[in-house]
Every structure is written in structure tokens, then in C-alpha cells.
Amino acid sequence: MKVIGIKFKDGGKIYYFAPKNNETYEEGMEVVVETSKSTEFAVVAFPPKDVPDAEVVQPLKPVVRIATNKDREQVKKNAERKPGAMKIAEEKIRKHNLDMKLIDCEFTFDGTKVIFYFAADGRVDFRELVKDLASVFHIRIELRQVGIRDETRILGGIAPCGRECCCAGALPEFKKVSIKMAKVQGLSLNPGKISGLCGRLMCCLSYENEYYSEIYKKMPKLGSEATTPEGKGTVVSENMLKQTVRVKIENKDGSLVYKDFPLDKIVFKGGKKEEPDDKADKDLKNLLD
Fold it and tell me: What is the CATH number of the domain that holds 244?
């Protein structure tokens, strides 16, 4: 089945749509598509290509048209309405004394609905707030509660690595991240070192976890006896990226030598490293979703 890849936000998830047979699409091209709720302005993530039917969620919605200048003007008008809408919503939240944090808002492409995103520790009864907002905007109102990770995705920011947060710029959808991943990769279990701006475990822990998990199984235990090309010694450290092991060797005169050897050049006793658990102390539990 021929599909076209569409995304609604930078770094967002890519969705399949049905392309028009008489139109040519290129990556980055702006288009208007039909969704289950309305028409939306979007960007082409990849041009038409064939994919297995099993990968397509039916019914496949169509691309309505390649975006026109009028469509772009509509998007611009919607963006200009946002600051005023945020200000009004914040005033109404204070008026109703609701324990919620307004994060963002967006108008649908056709301007018939505005969605307000907020964060809160628990459930919030915002029925009166919705009525109040509807009387001001005279369009459909939707309030959508989001979690701490989604809040960071919406607001964005600079991560500890110095780059834009993955969730805001390059992560289509969140993947499960665990304390075990940090342990396997030999990272410090200091909460400040393995948490992102959201205060949860960094998403990037999952990126190379498959590689680290495979190499971890081949590594010797620290302190185990190892036979190297230069004699027997004790394993004192390891480098999973280089796949090397540092061994302490005692010479005949009693002096000690520390040398690095490729993993495949040593034979060790005492078994391979045991798979780490996913247990976390009180501070680390606060990093979990």
C-alpha cells in the first residue's frame, strides 16, 4: 500500500496518510490533511512509498491538498491568538482557584477549537472553567492534562548534554527507561547525573542499551582472576565501548603493572558479570515514571 509520512510537530511522531495520485510530494513540504477530528496543517516527513498492509492502521486518512498561502496565513493567525488565549486562561484558572499549571495552548487549523494543556498532581474538576472559557472564545474548548515528561516536551529546553531535549526535538514517542539501564552502562547512580529537565530518568539511556546489555554479559566480574598474554592477574576495571579489560599483574619482583587487554585476549575465572537488578533506593525511585 502506498502511503505518505506526515508529522504535525518538529520531532513528532510520523503518521501514515493516503497521498493524492496527481500530486508530487517532497520531504518538508507543507500540506493540509484530514484527521479523525478535523483538517490539520502538517509537514511531509517522507514522500510516498509502499509499505506492508499490516503496518497501516485503517481507515487511512487522505492528504487534502498541498498547503496554499491562504493556509499558511491561517496558521499564522492561529499562532497570533495564542498569547491572548493563554493570558485569559490563566486569569480564569486563578478566578476558579484551581490547583493546575497551564503549560500551553493551540488552536486547531480551522479555528473551531482551542486545546489547553495543563499539569496537576491529581484530578481537577474544570467543568466550570470550560464553561467560562467557552463564553469568552465562543468555540469548542478542550483541557488536556499531561504528565511531567510531556510538559518538558512541550516547553522544551537545553538538556545536561548541552543539546535540545530529545523529547522536544528528536523523539517521536517515549520509550520505557529503567534504573537497570543506568547500571548496565556503568553510570553513576547520582540522581543529578542520570535525570533530565523533567526530573525523570533521561530518555537517552535507552538509545544504546541494546549494545551495552550484550557486552555486559561478556564482561568479567571486577576482582576476578584473569589470564592474559603477559601472565595472570586481577580484573580491576573495564571499558565496554572499547571492549577492553584492565588487569593488575604482579611481576616476579613484587612490582605491580596495570595493563589493558582486548576482551577476546583474556581468559577469566569466577564467572561473568551478573545481570543487574532494577531496584532503586528512595531518591532513585523519584526518577521513575
Answer: 2.30.30
Specify burial of residue 179 (Cβ count, 10 A radius: 0-12, 13-18, 19+).
buried
Per-residue model confidence as pLDDT tens digits over 195-243: 999 999 999 999 999 999 999 988 998 889 999 999 999 999 999 999 9
Instruction: Tell me if 248 is assigned to some domain.
Output: yes
80 with 132, same domain?
yes
Which residues 6+ apart lie within 8 Å of 107 measured at CB?
78, 81, 82, 85, 113, 114, 115
pTM, two decimals, is 0.81
**Residue 253 CB neighbours (<10 A):** 5
Residues ≥6 apart with Cβ < 8 Å to 69: none
Cell triple for 146: 499531561
Q: Which three cell numbers stand for residue 289?
A: 515514571
Biggest alpha carbon distance in the chain? 90
In a domain, 285, yes or no: no
* Listed residues 27, 48, 67: the one ending a domain: 67
| Short-list 59, 105, 110, CA closest to 84 | 105
* Within a domain: 276: no
**Residue 59 preceded by cis peptide, ω within 30:** yes
Containing structural domain, residue 16:
2-67
